[in-house]
Specification:
Layout (H helix, E strand, L loop, with lengths): L2 E6 L6 E7 L2 E7 L2 H7 L5 E5 L17 H10 L9 H6 L6 H17 L5 E4 L2 H9 L8 H12 L2 E2 L5 H17 L3 E6 L3 E6 L7
Parallel strand pairs: 1-4, 3-6, 4-5
Antiparallel strand pairs: 1-2, 2-3, 7-8
Helix pairs in contact: 1-4, 5-6, 5-7, 6-7
Length: 205
């Protein structure tokens, strides 16, 4: 099955995508959500490194994070980027959440495509994937080394091996494979959305 992993940046940075088909890992850069939508049209699963929804006050009264992010911290000790309510994100004066708004546009574009295709969309993130594969909480300080090492162990050969964005997108694509194979864990709920990670300890040292 062909799958895709998408690393999401703000509008200026755009989207870094890795398509996996067997051990073949093809790297792409696209500027707009619609360009990503066309590129991923034939993928069976698309794994996106951006929130699938904002925090909902009914589930998360403080409006500062989602249940998925709190569950990850509680059950696996993994710290993730907290997703606030949309109103809180809009009120931020430092453009701290611009990449989330770009991710929101991508989710909207891909969801429109899913209505007509047998495609699944999942939310994931590279740090969580790396921790899950190793079965331990890793330091983000060594992320480039750790993620490149994991990708080598998984047997993927990238045509852009030095870019952290493509390393991240490759891990997201691997999470898509784990999801397709039923080898995954979900954190969160239906209201605010779930974060998907590979089964804990799937690739220990």
């Amino acid at each position: 099955m062909r799958v895709a992993g998408v690393d999401v940046g703000a509008e200026k940075k755009g989207f870094h995508i890795v398509m996996l088909d067997g051990n073949s890992a093809k790297c792409f850069h696209r500027e707009t959500p619609n360009e990503v939508r066309f590129l991923c049209a034939l993928a069976g699963v698309v794994a996106i490194d951006a929130p699938c929804s904002w925090a909902c006050p009914r589930v998360s009264p403080t409006g500062r994070s989602r249940q998925a992010e709190r569950d990850l911290k509680t059950h696996r000790g993994i710290q993730s980027f907290y997703t606030p309510t949309r109103a809180r994100a809009l009120a931020n004066q430092k453009q701290h959440y611009d990449w989330m708004f770009n991710g929101e546009s991508l989710w909207r574009a891909l969801r429109a495509q899913v209505r007509n295709r047998p495609m699944r969309l999942i939310e994931t993130f590279p740090h969580g994937i790396a921790c899950a594969l190793r079965g331990q909480v890793l330091s983000a300080k060594d992320k480039r080394h750790d993620r490149r090492h994991l990708i080598q162990r998984l047997g993927y050969e990238l045509d852009q091996p030095t870019s952290i964005d493509y390393l991240d997108a490759t891990l997201c694509a691997h999470a898509a494979i784990c999801f397709a194979q039923g080898k995954f864990e979900e954190f969160g709920d239906a209201t605010e959305g779930c974060i998907v990670l590979p089964t804990w300890g799937a690739l220990p040292d």
